[in-house]
Amino acid sequence: MPSVEAGMILIPVGFLIHDALVITRSETFREIFQPMPGHEPNVDAAEVQKFGALSRHWWDPNGKLKALHDINGLRLNFIDQCGHLNGKQVIDVGCGGGILSEAMAAAGAVVTGIDMSRSALSVARHHAEKSGHAIDYHQSTVEAMARKAAGRFDLVTCMELLEHVPDPDAVVRACGQLVRDGGAAVFATLNRNLKSFIFAVVGAEYVLGLVPKGTHSYRKFITPSELDESAARSGLVLRNAIGLHYNPFLRRYSLGGNLHVNYMAHYKKY
Questions:
Q1: Suppose 109 and one of 85, 151, 157, 249 were both cysteines; which one would form an S-S bond, judging by CB atoms 3.0 to 4.6 Å apart?
Q2: Level-2 CATH architecture, domain 14-21+43-269
């Protein structure tokens, strides 16, 4: 989820910053994230429960998930530029309550949404039916879906999921399997550095309240170079990456500039 990027007034956070310093530059992607053996579900039950508990807030534009509504238009425009949504087969990995899925369907895409939260999917199905969008929702991991539907999609979106699973490398690999040759994959996640900890955890969760406290675990943040390495192993080539920033004075989000905190990355499968 999005974070503050500029103009914050910080409070004493020594007890939090300790966690940010646990990960050193010498630790690698695979040392931090332990691969899941075999076909064991790549699921953190606590994360699923945490977001499932927010189900009644998914479609409240002024509620606890307000930030997702505020950035949805920016994300949609970027995704459309990457994959030209109209008429395309799209899968939204970690779709939650369907905010982005519905926006892509409204833009003309044929959308499949997958998530492991049964309550979030219930909300997504109900809202899609009420809104008149025919979205195919499934309770599934991306790895399980890749075993059934490899190469079926023109576009794969995976927004703010990588930092919430035990093995993000497996998620990237499965996304690469789902997208057809010539198709696109778009990821959104959080960079891992002291700045991102201060802005995404301290600022967004504890100072400004942009997202609920406990939303993020800094240790699971993923640097752009780590994502690139994982994507390359999955047959995906980087085409574009862009930062997502929040101005607390204007209370406005924007795309562009650096990738220091929140960022989106567009990959193509050749």
A1: 85
A2: 3-Layer(aba) Sandwich (3.40)
